[in-house]
Specification:
Elements: H1 2-15, E1 36-40, H2 44-47, H3 50-57, E2 61-72, E3 77-87, E4 90-97, E5 104-108, E6 114-119, E7 131-135, H4 154-171, E8 178-182, E9 187-194, H5 195-200, H6 208-211, H7 216-219, E10 222-229, E11 235-245, E12 250-261, E13 280-282, H8 285-300
Parallel strand pairs: 7-13
Antiparallel strand pairs: 1-8, 2-3, 2-12, 3-4, 4-5, 5-6, 6-7, 8-9, 9-10, 10-11, 11-12
Helix pairs in contact: 1-8
């Protein structure tokens, strides 16, 4: 999947900062004491199952943001953010990156057999035109909810859910779980994910050289996970945010997804199908895999 490849590539730089052992971070629940009614244990499997994606797939129009941020004690930083507006079967995702020219925007208009991508200047060795189009029609979210995860922001939510599921498999009852239910029915779930589960879920790429320098305990470092679900049962925000401490290096990492509003058709761009042919590179289905591999290589240098 093209989005997952680019997420992993964008975070490879941050992972490259983690060259030595990391101490375990203990997740801490942050409770809203005024709204708190009750806590439940072992609720993650129900809350972070398919229903989370299925619920969002039923939302006709929504805007969302997703982000990756990292900061090391060496001064190195990483910051990537995506903004998606979904109106029925149409959607646009705009990307912001810290590195000039590396952003990629995505546009699909309902009913089209193609999805269009607008590339920054860093990709001119791969695609000579500002735009490229690839064969991908409507996501058909109503009949195949998991295809909602193709959206450039929602994939962060899906990957974070997968990371929690993997962490639960490896840690069992030792993985902390706490659910706060407020008076209005909204929920706040607190748990944790392991560092290596984030890689296995597709949020970053560690690489064999770095992996060989980390022990199993270090790869199993726990990072706090928070999930907020609205009164309608729709996820509002999911985030992993924590610090891995080592004797000579501290690394702060943050991955997140958040619903931000309800867009209308006015929030969509003009249909890129109207662009003159000289501004658009046509990439066939047979060429797509090699094309995204080349884009990923250009992105990470």
């Amino acid at each position: 999947m093209r989005t997952q490849r680019l997420i992993a590539g964008a975070t490879a730089l941050l992972v490259g900062l983690v060259l030595s052992g990391c101490a375990t971070t203990t997740p801490t629940a942050v409770a809203n004491h005024e709204a708190k009614l009750e806590y439940h244990a072992d609720t993650g499997a129900e809350l972070l199952g398919d229903s989370l994606v299925e619920g969002l797939a039923k939302v006709e129009n929504f805007s969302a943001t997703a982000y990756t941020h990292g900061k090391a004690s060496t001064g190195a930083t990483l910051s990537t953010q995506h903004e998606t507006s979904v109106v029925g079967a149409s959607y646009v995702t705009k990307e912001s990156t810290a590195e000039a020219g590396t952003s990629i925007d995505e546009v699909h208009i309902a009913g089209s057999d193609y999805t269009y991508y607008l590339f920054g200047s860093a990709y001119t060795t791969v695609v000579s035109t500002p735009w490229a189009r690839l064969p991908m029609g409507d996501l058909d979210r109503a009949n195949d909810p998991q295809r909602t995860c193709i959206l450039g922001t929602v994939i962060y939510m899906c990957n974070l859910v997968k990371a929690w599921q993997l962490s639960k498999e490896s840690n069992g009852e030792e993985l902390p779980e706490k659910l706060e239910v407020s008076a209005d029915g909204s929920k706040h779930f607190t748990s944790a994910v392991t560092f290596d589960s984030l890689e296995e879920a597709g949020l970053y790429t560690l690489g064999d050289d770095l992996r060989s320098q980390l022990s199993d305990d270090e790869l199993g470092t726990l990072l706090p996970l928070h999930v907020w679900v609205g009164t309608d049962g729709i996820v509002q925000k999911i985030e992993v945010n924590g610090t891995m401490d080592a004797a000579s290096l501290d690394v702060e990492v943050q991955f997140g997804f958040e619903i931000t509003g309800t867009p209308t058709a006015d929030d969509l761009p003009d249909d890129p199908a109207s662009l003159a042919p000289q501004y658009v590179t046509n990439v066939t289905a047979d060429q797509a895999s090699a094309f995204w591999d080349a884009i990923g290589n250009a992105r990470t240098g």
